Amino acid sequence: MKPRCIWAAAFALGGCAGRQSVLAPAGEEASTLHGLLGLTLIVCGIAYLLVLVFLGAALWRSRLRLNHEPALAATPDDRRLSLGLAGWAGVMTIGIFLLAAASFLVDRTLARHDEAAAGDIRITGHQWWWRIEYRNPAGTGWIETANELHLPQGRPTRIDIRAADVIHSFWIPNLSGKIDMIPGRANHLTLTPHRLGWVRGQCAEFCGLQHARMALDVKVETPHDYAAWLSGQARPAAAASAPEAERGLTLITTGTCGSCHSIRGTSAQARAAPDLTHVAARRSLAAGTLPMTREALMGWITNPQALKPGAEMPASTLPPADMLAIATYLEGLR
Amino acid sequence: MSVVDPPLKGPTARLARTWGDAPGLWGFIATVDHKRIAARYIVVTVALLVLDGLLALDMRLQLAFPALKRLEAQGYNEAFSLHGSAMMFLVSVPVMEAMAIWLVPLMLAQRNMAFPRLNAFSFWMYLEGVLMLWIPHLFNVTPDLGWFEYPPLSGPSYSPGHRADIWAQMITFTEVAALSASVNTFVTIMRMRPPGMTLARMPLFLWAMLITSLMTIFALPAVMLVTSMLISDRLVATHFFNPAMGGDVVLFQHIFWFFGHPEVYIIFIPALGFVAAITETFCRRTVFGYVPIVLSLVAIAVLAFGLWVHHMFAVGLPRLGASFYTAASLVIAIPAGLQIFCYIATIWAGRPRFATPLMWVVAFIVTFVIGGLSGVMTASAPLDLQLTDTYFVVAHLHYVLIGGAMFPLFGAFAYWYPKATGRLMSEAWGKVAFWLIVGGFNLGFFPMHLLGLMGMPRRIYTYPAETGWQPLNIVASAGSAIAGIGAAIFVANALLSLWRGKPAGSDPWGGATLEWATSSPPPPHNFDQTPVVSDLTPLWREQRQAMEGLAVEHRELLMTTPIEARPDYRQKSPSPSIWPLLTALTVSAMFVGSIFTPWALVWGALPIGATVTGWFWPKKQA
User: Fold this and answer.
1) What's the confidence (pLDDT) of residue B619?
2) What is the pLDDT of residue A15?
3) Between the CA of residue B371 and those of B306, B315, B327, what are the distances in Å?
């Protein structure tokens, strides 16, 4: 593994450290695929080298015998070259057999991961965000959140993959290969992360205007931290702590916000847009478009069309003081 | 008919009058001369190549810096959609057809294609397809969903307006044009080879075009079908691709890629034909491994129809099925690899002369093999899940299409330019353009493999700085710009050489195939006499044979038997006509109308019937 990482780093300017990179696997599936990538690169590298050596030799040979005798004629094929052709066919067949076998074995390995895993998470692709639901370990039903995926370390987690509108593709390169989210079809993917910390995922199938801004933060935690985080997510929204925040909540539930968004524990219960119950605990806003700060929150609710043109969320017509109240309330939703 | 030896001087002037066009506008629009039609095709494709190249440079500028505002989301999505759609449907496939339309009759020493008016119709349909895409662009109705517009994104719910219709109908135009050209090429090669040119004595370029035209005839109806289904979903609310009503969005992908994968080889196999022709002439020996190469071409053509699913591994197909398509996709590397060996072996065993056409062949080998090997990598179903829809695939497809098809095409331009124009292109400027294009291309596109592995998806108009993708994106943009300068020099060289190039004579390179036997540029009737062929390299023989007996005062072609090329009968060849243009116009009116109302199919059929009746109206025998 290591030498390949060095190889990759040398070329990819530190790609091994990437938070969204095939070259820095942080999970079992991605490691397996990284191994297959290494093998494939070696086989293809040898094949390319053989072609270059033969071509170089042919060009060098032609320099040595640079005679311009004009005799142009149909020439019978050279016997030694014919043997070379047969040999080359043999070399290619061996290489291809090797790759086909390795590919087949890797496929079976990934399939075995699938069987072992429990289906605890559902992710649905929307234009242009991710609805994420966790099976509630304490009781029944599902806990909904958006745009930030938490996973327990060292445990295979099976994710059910769906789409609400158009085709998207769910891809966290550090953890595994991608799988398309297709309307009318159910897919699934198993992830077994082994490195703690943040990685980044991104939609990989063109899904319309803001395809580029459909990213996903992924945090790999110890099973203990994960359980704690999940029980936090299961709770309803934090109560408004100050009169300003109180006013913000009223504006949300009586205004237009609540007709799309849901905040558990309040009367805002619509499901057309990302769940905001614990929105301020997330790392970023609008599917990886902005970092989660007060300024960004203000900017986003004031004029989302300036930051992510085409997003479903309309610009607000509320006066600035009301915006501030809403932002103050949302900031408290941890 | 009688075999004469040595060849007699034919009645050139009378033949030229019989086969020539009327002067002026009428001659221009009524011509059925394959050389003029091909030249038009090529001029339009080169113009589009330039436009698409500018779009590409604009996109590279946008991606050179994170969060740049040069092109916003809509502008970028339109740019890559136009670039991809025009390159695949309006440049790559048509330019290969154009080369065939120009070269096939010359290489067969014939006076025209089998169906001259169909040839004219093909070009007019193609031209209207080009206008179909670019005129709406002027009015800001530009397709913005890429070169394969997957539903439901392209369906009625998510793409209101006519952007998706324009794209889908543009394909109908170009595929009608491509099918016309392919049927024509196929029949021309099968029935119009000169006496003695049996299948086994056919130049490799003709094999390549024969196989390509057959592939086109099988592959293109699939894409016409699938875009028509999309249009009817959008126009009359059929639900082929609507899962809520029992449709299936993945069906679109299957049918599209059943066409889409063979299409890559429809572009690539003619390029192999160029490589074979150039290698033979400049290595001054027959290409090593004629039989293995022909069998490889046939194998590629068959296999190409059995591996479309490797474009769809991420869809979540059953694993056993995916393994089958992995194996099929890997196997196609063998016939491709065998051919590469044969071309290198020809250089090895020959006495090569490194003029620009052969340099392009060497660049083709060095560059295309990288694209072939990255194709081997994406063929593996599990590994492809990390590679597909990323910049790795962007790198792969450009290595295959530019390295594998455009480099041989540039070589072919330089090689046949003197035959078409009578003048040679400047070798010095040709070499400058060569190094800039090949160097710039590799500098620009090799880093994209790494960008893909670093997680950069394709079709994104911007990326945050924290991803660390910027340094390689700068390199990619710089490389593309260098290649762009090279391309500008190539085009300028071609234009200036029209006036300033050295006169070429009939055979400047010492070519072995029949097109070099006639004058440069060829007269309207191409050849005074019909050569008789007795081996693969007729012009490298001391003794040449020819036969006479075709009419001089009216247009007549010699038809031969499909396998042995024995003279069969004389075929009257149609004179110039405006009906192909009028028919193309009425067909276009129906196609355009059917975007707006299904009734266009009914009422639009009437003028088509009228023009086709005019086209086929029986005439008195001259």
Assistant:
1) 79
2) 40
3) 20, 24, 18
Rounded to whole angstroms, how far apart are CA atoms A52 and A34? 26
Q: Judging by DSSP bridges, how do beta strands A168-170 and A179-181 pair with one another?
A: antiparallel
- Average pLDDT of the residues of chain A: 90
Quick check: A11 contacting B, CB < 8 Å?
yes
The CA distance from A299 to the nearest CA of chain B, in Å, is 17
Amino acid, single-letter form, for residue B155: G
Whole-angstrom Cα distance, residue B514 to residue B88? 31
CA distance A319 to chain B (A): 28
Contact of A307 with chain B, judged by CB distance below 8 Å, is answered with no
Nearest CA among B82, B160, B74, B68 for reference residue A309 = B74
Is the distance from CB of B433 to CB of B493 less than 8 angstroms?
yes
**Cis peptide bond prior to B457, omega within 30° of 0:** no
Residue A10 clears pLDDT 60, i.e. is over it: no
Best of B290, B307, B358, B373 to mutate (most A CBs within 10 Å, chain A): B373
| CB neighbour list of residue B406: distance below 8 Å, 6 or more residues apart | none
Q: With contacts defined as CB-CB under 8 Å, which chain A residues touch B455? A: 18, 20-22, 173-174, 200, 202
Burial class (CB within 10 angstroms; exposed 0-12, middle 13-18, buried 19+) of B474: middle
Question: Closest-CA residue in chain A for B244?
Answer: A184
Where are chain B's structural domains?
A: 34-576
Contact state of B348 with A58 under an 8 Å Cβ cutoff: yes
Place of tokens 């395809």: A211
Tokens of A195: 């490195």
CATH architecture of B34-576: Up-down Bundle (1.20)
Query: Is the pLDDT reported for residue B495 higher than 70?
Result: yes
Phi/psi at A270 (5° precision): -80, 155
Half-sphere exposure of B575 (CA within 13 A, CB side): 12
Q: What pLDDT, on the 0 to 100 scale, is given for residue B8?
A: 42
Contact B327 A100 (CB under 8 A): yes
How far is C-alpha B272 from the geometric centre of its chain's CA atoms? 12
Interface subset of A 41-80, CB within 8 angstroms of B = 41, 44, 47-48, 51-52, 54-55, 57-59, 61-62, 65-70, 72-75, 77-78
Count Cα neighbours of B577 within 13 Å in the Cβ-side half-sphere: 22
Q: B521: cis peptide before it, omega within 30°?
A: yes
Indicate whether B51 pLDDT > 50.
Answer: yes
* Chain B interface test: which of A206, A216, A312 (most B C-beta within 10 Å): A206
Q: Name the amino acid, one letter, at A149.
A: L
The packing angle between helices B333-349 and B356-379, to 10°, is: 150
Residue B148 pLDDT greater than 60, yes or no: yes
**What pTM, to 2 d.p., does this model score?**
0.94
Distance (Å, whole) CA B91 – CA B241: 29
Closest-CA residue of B relative to A206 is: B459
Q: Phi first, then psi: give them for residue B430, nearest 5 degrees.
A: -60, -40
Statement: residue A12 has pLDDT above 70:
no
pLDDT of residue B621: 61
User: Would you state the structure tokens that stand for residue B392, as one six-digit string?
Assistant: 């790795």
The model's confidence at residue A282, banded by pLDDT at 50, 70 and 90, is very high
A32 or A137, greater pLDDT:
A32
| CA A257 – CA A245 distance, rounded (Å) | 15
Best CA proximity match to B358, nearest among B347, B345, B369: B347
